Amino acid sequence: QVQLVESGGGLVQAGGSLMLSCAASGSFFSISRMAWYRQAPGKQRELVAAITSDGSTNYADSVKGRFTISRDKVKNTVYLQMGSLKPEDTLVYYCYALIITSSGHGYQYWGQGTQVTVSS
Fold first, then answer.
1. Which letter, b or e, does each residue of 2-27 get, where b requires 16 or more Cβ atoms within 10 Å of its Cβ?
2. What is the pLDDT of residues 43-66, one digit of tens each?
3. CB–CB of 75/59 below 8 Å?
4. Quick one: which of 115, 111, 93, 114 has its CA closest to 4?
5. DSSP of 72-93
6. How distant is the alpha carbon of residue 114 from its chain centre?
7. What share of the chain is helix, strand, coil (3-state, %, to 5)?
8. Could you tell me if 106 and 99 are in contact, meaning their C-beta atoms sit under 8 angstroms apart?
9. What mean pLDDT do residues 88-112 have?
């Protein structure tokens, strides 16, 4: 069983910074893609940033230059450093991981979500 445990959400003033962390635990062969998504009530989950196993990254246009995704492959952890936060960044953020088993199959896992609130 694989679990993704997120931490680091909270309340911050506009212009401030927060770092989210997500650690994967359980039995698996490797982790391919890791990412952060966010979701507003009643809306689809949207990609914020993603990082592959070789370190390639991509970002939503709305966060380019403000957010940075990184990962620690030894700790099986992905981070999202968020800066210059805006009130519109107020959403629930979800960690995502594509887990690869020893047989080569890929399975998608999600974290439980962490609330980020940016006050104006």
1. eebebebbeebeeeeebebbbbbeee
2. 999 999 999 999 999 999 999 999
3. no
4. 111
5. ETTTTEEEEEE-S--GGG-EEE
6. 10
7. 5, 60, 40
8. yes
9. 96
